Give the backbone structure.
Amino acid sequence: MNAIDRGVMVIHLRQPFLDWINRTVEMSSPVTMKELEEDCSVFLVPEQDRLEDMLEYIRPLKPRLFEMELESWNRDPSTWPQERTEELFDAWCELRAHSKVRDLVDGPIVKEPGELLTDLAGTWVVISSPDFDDEYLSMETTPCVVLDQEDHEITGDFHIGLISGSLSGVIEGDRVRFSFDGMDEMDPANGAGTITIQGETMTFTLEFHYGDVFTFDCVREGQDRVAR
């Protein structure tokens, strides 16, 4: 029996979520709270010294976790709440953190990446952002994201304006989800983020643990920049 250097977050659905399920999902009989509690979603998170730190780590991911829970019951987004905010997540769901994780299986843990995004490795130059002007983006150097890819695992570094750091993540379907550590101006910063591809453009999103979310549009180094 081996300890794993991860914590566990369990999502327990509250009454408003149950009410939404019974309004929008066709069932032979209404779902009960007891049935919801029989099988909850579980997520591994980085090991932390305190349970409060685990909850803080996952806080920027709440809107996406909310969507994942909604989609698991009803794939039609038109039935979902229009504003899927952190506050609404907390009203509809409860997160419980657990620090003691043991592996009872002798074999390795196999991660299933789903449909791989291919050929992400290389240097991606930031060409625009809805959150910053050009002067800020190029304040210290050419703003860029440098990625390495091994199967579904992604690592890399970024330097955009006064924000810099290193990231590590995995491909989940049509996007990369990662965590990062770095600096914002002179202050330590960390959080989570996503990478998506649409055509020739990569969208790079940073979700800081203290609440800010910044988005950057990137193209491969040497590729012609599109008009902004």
User: Anything to note?
Assistant: Helices lie at 15-24, 33-38, 51-58, 62-73, 86-92, 134-137.
